[in-house]
Every structure is written in C-alpha cells, then in structure tokens.
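User: Could you check the structure of this?
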Amino acid sequence: MKKRTEKVLSLIITILYLLSFPVGVAILGIVFKVDPKGAELKWFAAIWALIGVALLAILSYVMKKARESVKADVFPLGDITFDSWRQALVSAIENRGYKEFYSELDGTNYSLSMYIYPQSRDPLAVITVIKTDALRESICESEADKETDLVKEYLNCRTIRNSINEIKIYCVDKISPYFHTLLDSHMWQDYKLGRLVVGISLDERRIYVGNFADGYGIWLYKKLREQFIAMAGLEGKEPLSKQ
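Assistant: Sure, the predicted structure tokens are below.
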C-alpha cells in the first residue's frame, strides 16, 4: 500500500497555503496600507510564493528524514525454538478471539496465515504471519496482493471500503537488506489503514518491532504495538538498544 497519509497531508498544506493568499492580501492592505490593485501586490505575491515553495520543500525533507531515521526496537527471541514460539503466538492470537481465515504452505519454506477478529468489521482487525527464507520486496508485493484478495473475499466485496487495523509478522531464516529497509522505517498510519510490521530473525534470534516517528495515527500505532507486545510475551521487557 502507498503512503497516502503523507500525500494527503502535503495536499492539505498546499490548499491551506493557497487559501491563505487572500488573507495575506487583506492583512497587507490593513497593516501596511497596500493597494490590492497596486504594484506592491506583485512583489507580495512573489515573496509569498517563494515562502510557500520553501516551506513545502522543508516539509518534504522532514518527512523523508523521519522515515529514514526511525529504527526498529529489537528484543531477544530467547532460547525457545521458533516452532514453540510460533505455537505460543498463535495461541495468544486465538485467545484474543481471532480466527484463522486462511492458511497456505507451499513446501518451499514459505507459509502464510491470516487471522481475522470476527467481531470487527470497520475497522477490520487482521493479523498476518508470513514465514520465508529471506525477505525480498517481491515477496512483500506478492503477499500484499494476496492479502487484498483475501480481505475482499472475507468482506464479500470488489472494493475494500472498510478501515483495516493490521499486524503483519515476517519470520525469516536470515536477514536481508530489504528486511532492514522495511523494519527500520517510519510505521506510517493511513486514515484507512492502521499498521504495525514485525520481523522475526531466526539466525539472529531477535524480534524487530517497527517504530513510529511522530505525527498522524500515533495512538493507533501504540494500540497495535501494545497488542503485539502482549501476545508475544514481551510485556515489561526493554528493547536491547535501551538496556
């Protein structure tokens, strides 16, 4: 899914900037006695446009740096085997009332399981667990398309109009560059999609929990994070980076 929240925010700021122009003209006329039809207005419009372009450029840069600078919180997986850990996780998911809606195992070290909370509808609560050898962008794109089709099937619709709150858990045998690209980035929240991405590294024996910089949807991110932390038995434990 695309980062529509940031695009919508930029659009809103642009619209507000354009709407502020007549207000600025009125203030200029009242405070500085400038004739709205005079030559001074051209200079005012030019300066206002330059300020607007500079502010939008700064906003874009700040958003980009925020996404790049957020590192995932890392917790130890412990000595427990992955199968035992996953069994405990699935039990915790089901104890919270989630039901398995779909399960796929293709025999090539890839599996996908989707759990949906049946009492939820809008927003729809979804937990997806994916197991693969190494995380690649193509796998994420394929999984996202698959998940979209499954949600449409569950909702019995052609177009998803419901809000979705999703926890997505990637379990990998080994770390790949795209693993860090995905996990060490800002967990943006869409007005129609609340999301938390988690990575389980079996070779490092570590759990990576995607982090949030600041801004729209932080309350929803915290809700999903608290839910995963409880299900994974990480309550009261500090990330390795904070120990």
